């Protein structure tokens, strides 16, 4: 992933990246999208705010009970916790794919459903790459630009080329998903999420099914893309090391019903190369996080 | 991932060998048991009858093949359209699906005379019988393909606020292609059966004789060797139809999924 490494090495610091994101998409290749001046209300407020969010499934199961969280613009937040603690449910509620039963949830100053429809600057990366097998890599990446009531097809080639270059898959643009390895498919999925230049990226264990080395490489690439594009990200993961490596803060959830039990700030310097995992500071944070998760479980 | 395809020779030789053994056993049985030719003609007699009637059989085969192909084409178009309707409205699917099952369960031999009464003899009635018998697999497979969509794909489309039309045209329909191809394979054999049954009741009049008519005629005259030759022609047509649809389906699927190998 030379493009990403180069971008990160030469890239702006986080403050600059955030400021650039606040100004909206820029540069050649940016897909025409909704006006970004009204991304937030108020402009400086958090991107996602949850206050006492409760989700009860139709069968009566209480999946989330009074969840509070705040995701700031340009921040990378990791969600960890045992299976069944409602991490994916919370992610889907923020995406507007699942209605909440009680509490208040705001995304860019709107309800999640309104944010999805009117704001349209969120993207979701699923655990499976969810690529359409009949479409080429290029056409899969282009898909988000073709959808919606006002498809953003103008200049879509430039937008697709940009993200394919970012994930290092330009040479595979004409290939079909069946021709790619698991890691490459995940990169296509990531490129598809980034093609609309989202301000909020929701990741649901995106690298969970990959082998350790591929996962490490993709984590590194994700950090590079995040640093470069300045989006805010909320990542669900089962890997505590991944959470410490990626996040500014880690939210530890406890199960039945799902609640935020702890918030652990990760004050490690950036950029964070994979080699950071062998440092005493990283190991200490990992041990603390493990203790918090065990406590919550 | 599919396993690498075996070479053509190893796929074709075993069934051919079984066929040769079967014909040899048949010939031997006719000679040893002295079976009367009007009951079980020996393969040599059947071959002679096929050569003698080659012209009529070829014309019959062409006519029946046309009716079956037309029936299959209509079934594919109509079946896919019905499947799209079913996928768009659960109420519509619930209301109409029992009538689709009717197509599968009704004894076509009992309905064919009705069709002749209503529509008369000729190609249209024969094709209608072929459609009736071959429509159901396309409807069921098509509906399954259009409705069994991974919820993550639907969420992916919902994230971009996709319209119903976009979900249908960009997700459901292309996703149903393998299912529709599978339905077409099943229906290809059924369309041949339908065309032959249709010809039993509704021939083409002066326009010509299909294989169905040749079967009825030769059995009525107790020309058993001719009957066997016609049955073999029917089998050959069924195989050809299935092979043609399979090859076409494979080509469509290859294009659909690209070359399949993992890096």
Summarize the structure.
The complex is a heterodimer of chains A (297) and B (263). With 297 residues, chain A is α/β, with parallel strands linked by helices. Chain A is built from ten helices and nine strands.
Question: What average pLDDT do the residues of chain A reach?
Answer: 82
**Widest sheet, order of strands of chain A:** 5-6-7-3-8-9
Structural class of chain B: mainly alpha
Overall morphology of chain B: globular
How many extended strands of chain A? 9
Largest sheet of chain A: 6 strands, mixed
Strand and helix order of chain B: HHHHHHHHHHH
Coarse morphology of chain A? globular
Features:
heterodimer, A: 297 residues, alpha/beta, three-stranded antiparallel β-sheet, 10 helices, 9 strands, B: mainly alpha, globular
Describe the structure.
- The complex is a heterodimer of chains A (297) and B (263).
- In chain A, helix 9 packs across helix 10.
- Chain A has helices spanning 2-10, 14-22, 87-95, 112-119, 137-146, 156-166, 182-194, 212-229, 240-246, 280-296; strands spanning 48-56, 62-71, 76-80, 102-107, 122-125, 200-204, 232-236, 249-254, 259-265.
- Chain A is 37% helix and 19% strand.
- Chain A starts with a helix and ends with a helix.
- The longest helix of chain A has 18 residues, at 212-229.
- Chain A has a six-stranded mixed β-sheet with strand order 5-6-7-3-8-9, with helices on both faces.
- By secondary structure, chain A is an alpha/beta fold.
- Chain B is an all-alpha fold and 263 residues long.
- In chain B, 81% of the residues lie in helices and 0% in strands.
- Chain B has helices spanning 8-33, 43-52, 54-88, 90-105, 108-119, 123-147, 151-159, 164-175, 177-201, 211-220, 224-257.
- In chain B, helix 3 runs parallel beside helix 6 (123-147) and helix 6 (123-147) packs antiparallel against helix 9.
- Chain B is globular.
- The mean pLDDT of chain B is 88.
- The A-B interface holds A 92, 95, 97, 116-117, 120, 122-124, 126, 128, 130, 132-134, 136, 143-144, 146-149, 175-181, 184, 196 and B 1, 150, 152-153, 155-163, 166, 170-171, 174-175, 177, 256-263.
